[in-house]
Amino acid sequence: MSDALPDELERHDIRKQVNRILRDLGNPEPPIKLADVRSLLSLDLQYYSSSDPGLVSELTHRFQLIAKKTIPDLGRHLQLALSKSKLCAFWVPALSRIMLDGDVPEPKHRWIEAHEIIHSVIPWHKNFLLGDNAQTLDPTCHAVLEAEANYGAGRLLFLDEKFNAEAKDLDLSFKSIKLLQKRYANSIVSTFWRIVEDRNPLDPVFGMVSIHPHYADVGSHDGPNPWRYFIRSEAFARQFSRISSETVYELVRSHASRRKAGPIFAAQDTIIDDRGEEWEVELECFSTTHAVLTLGYTIKERPVVVQVS
Predict the structure, then answer these.
(1) Is the previous residue joined to 28 through a cis bond, with omega within 30 degrees of 0?
(2) How many other CB atoms are found less than 10 A from the CB of residue 306?
(3) Whole-prediction pTM value?
(4) Does residue 177 form part of some domain?
(5) How many domains does the chain have?
(6) pLDDT in tens, 155-213
(7) Are strands 97-101 and 44-48 parallel, antiparallel or unpaired?
(8) Which residues have C-beta within 8 Å of that of residue 103, sequence separation ≥ 6?
(9) Best exposed site among 26, 95, 230, 302 by fewest CB in 10 Å?
């Protein structure tokens, strides 16, 4: 996942692709079956093991046999794909095939598969993936592609506006997140993400996925910072653009209890918007032991106190 958000035009185009899939599937009820999506799109799914030293040569040989022709430099392209950002899956356009690393924990498979499905349906992605020109290898270009695929995956797994409508009828809390997690059969992290971004973009809401301030092994990840993702609704990003990841993690650190799993804290604090005005925020933090999730949203603006001498 990436906490970047595609711009409005790209989001509109991606949602058109997702809505076409949902419409062609008869607008299913949650949870969506990804096997049905792959069948509709004529996509194949195959597992591989990233720990296999002969992976690239084996995959190259198999793909050449399946394609019944030589695909120029396929081995080099596969090696490049596997080396990019520690990939746990990739899409091979020439074979309409999604390759998923079977060594990745199973709870992550659903999100990863949806991510690769979206790569396959966004028309402009085919020109960039498994390529080696300067534009493709540009980290900024790669980040844009990943953000677009993540956005589409979220829209697909949560049935676009259906999730938003149901989420608005529930309180903004981890109790609601866990209810929706079960209904849509997705991970708690992806459900948390959708609640923050999509429940109501007009509400200033933020979320953080991080390590536990008291236990570095709880929520540990490969990044250099204690937080992994800082997620914001459109309203929060617009009204509180100066609030940084560091600021939010400091809120987590200052309130965190020493519980390792389950509810970590519920508290109120204050943040300052771009106009310098102070707002009270409600904070709730929950640990899965694999990730510490902190949900925050504004309650009310604090009145300015003027001293009169």
Answers:
(1) no
(2) 5
(3) 0.82
(4) no
(5) 2
(6) 999 999 999 999 999 999 999 999 999 999 999 999 999 999 889 989 999 999 999 99
(7) parallel
(8) 49, 50, 51
(9) 26
